[in-house]
Structures are given as C-alpha cells and as structure tokens.
Amino acid sequence: MPALGLTPALHLLAQLQPSLSIRTFLRTASYKLRPPRPVPFSPTVRHAQEAVIEAGRAEPRQKSTVLFEQRKGGTPTIVLGGFVPDATDQVYLMRGRLLEYGSLYYFNYSRHGFSLELFCAQLDDLVEELVTLHGQPPVIFTVSFGCGLLLEWLRRARHAGRCIPTLAGVILVSPVACVEDLLEPGAPKPTTLLGRAVKPYMDAHGPVGAGGIEKSRAVFTKMFEAGAQNRELLSTLMTKGELERLRDSVLATIRNIDASGACERVQALRGMPGPAGCFSPSVLPLSDAPALILYAEKEGSVITETSPTRFALERAPRAFFSDVTVQVVTNPRGNPVQHASLIFHVFNFLPPIKAFYRRLKKGKLREAA
Asked: What average pLDDT does range 294-322 have in this prediction?
C-alpha cells in the first residue's frame, strides 16, 4: 500500500522529486500546466464611477484596475487587498480554492493615486452588475487596509440611506480601518512595522519627501522578505518558479507605487473614521450578510495593542454584522501566524475560509429547496 495513503502515481512522484512536497504538487496540479493569468474586466455598469469623475471629485489616474478570472460557480468573490501587495498576489495561493465557488474579481489599486470616493463608486458598480445583471451576489474578501475600505463602503451606503445590493457574504482578514489601528495616539514613536511606514505621511505638512517614500518601501519589502526567508516552509507552499514569480510581482508593486499613489492611499486611511463613525442606529448593523472576521495569532507587528477596530469587532461584532463569526487563526506546529499572512500561512487560513464558503453553499441549497 502506498505510503500515507497516496496513489501509486503520487508515491512515485514523491520518490522521484523528494524536494517537492506532495501538498504543493496537489495544489499546483489543479492549475494543470501553469497558474492562469487574470484578465482586465470591462464593466457594463459604470454610472457611479463615471458620475464621480465627471463631477471632478476624482481623477482617472486614481481608478483601480479590476482583473478577473471567470468560472461557472454561482458565488463570485471580490478581493480587496491591503496597502500592498496587489489583490492578485494577496490570494495567490488561495485562488484555486476560491475559484471552486465562482469567478474571482481583483481590485488592484492604482499605483499613481487613490480616491476613496472613486473606489466606493467602482465597488458600487461591480456589485450592482453581479447582482442585477448576473443574479450572483458576491462574497467580498478583504485583507488589512481592504477591510477598512469595505467597512467604509458599507458605512457610506447606510449613512446615505442607499439600499446595498444583496451580498453573499463578507470576509475580513486582519482588519485595519483607521489610523489608530497602526499608530497609538500620544505614543512617542510607532510601535508597529506598518506604523513606521505610515508615520512620515502623518507628520508631513506637505508632500512627503523621497526619503519618506523610500522608508515606507523598505518597510513593506522587509515584511514580505521576512516571510520569504523560511525556505522549509515555502517548500510546502509553492514551487521555486511560483515563488520567483510572486516575489518579482510583489517587489515590483512596492517599487512602482509613486509618491501620489502612496500618499493618497494613506490619506484614504486618514479619512476613515473607523468603528467610531459607525455608532449610529441609522448605520448599524452594516450588513445582514454572513460575515467571517479572522485575526492572526500574532498581529502585534502591524496592529497596535489599543486598536479600536479590533476592540470593536471582537467585543461587539454583532453590532456591525448581524450574522458573524470571529476567529483567531493559529499555527500550533510552526511559526506563529502573522498579520494577513495569506501567502506564508495559507494552510492555516484555509480551513475557516473553506468552512465559510461551504456554509454559504448549503444556505443556497436550502433556499433552492
């Protein structure tokens, strides 16, 4: 009988290629020869974003690029990444799993600017198109800064009294929704890595100088490279070619975000009131859609100990989402799970995420019956 219950073919592969983990082979084999490349999405519904641009409240350079991978499943997923990397890289190792449920749509923020109002308009248009034209309410899958964008999008819609199209669900991984999540008020210096990256933008009375931009680039590069140093771990996650492609893509994003792009992303965070801006009977709950909130066991390198967003979402999650599960993701057999570590701790994040999608699928089957 093959070792570990493997088929003879896989057992032979393990003998011939001992450096390639079976888990890695099984994951990459789902892509056949190579991972697919997302393609630009051309929206049919554009009225919200066009209204913002035509009114002069945002510029075309600030527009996010939306990419997608099309599948037949009935539950599409919209991915909103953090400050960096791009959304396509953020869920690089999860794509195969998420595509089992439907198409994937990635919001990659412009490298030359960012507008919170234009972002919200683009998300308005995409959700409307999926719901009204295709009858497919999406899951909105958010990471770090992207979680703050989701909360702000929901808050603005509720505050304006607009009806939000039906969502299949929302996922928030390591939420960052206001400046205080990264910088403790009154602290003499930043206590977190990401706090060091954004501090120059908070202190600047005008455009941030080249030194400040380079400092933030160095911090984000350090955060990625720290995970990439664990070669033993990486051998269980991806092949050498996949790691090289991912590394090149992530570092290119960090390198190519210009001063306007960097400053305006941080300004968007400054413009978010966080949980404090949601405490109103006219706003809460933000959504009745099923929600999953995941924190890593080791958030301290990025999120402050006094994070108001974490305090609110852990202590009173049902005030924000009426149907919500909050969970801390741990890795009992190795390095602790870090903030938003969907690449280097993918197998720790996958179980609760897969369970969430299975729950949504069962709910659809009950409705159909």
From this structure: 95
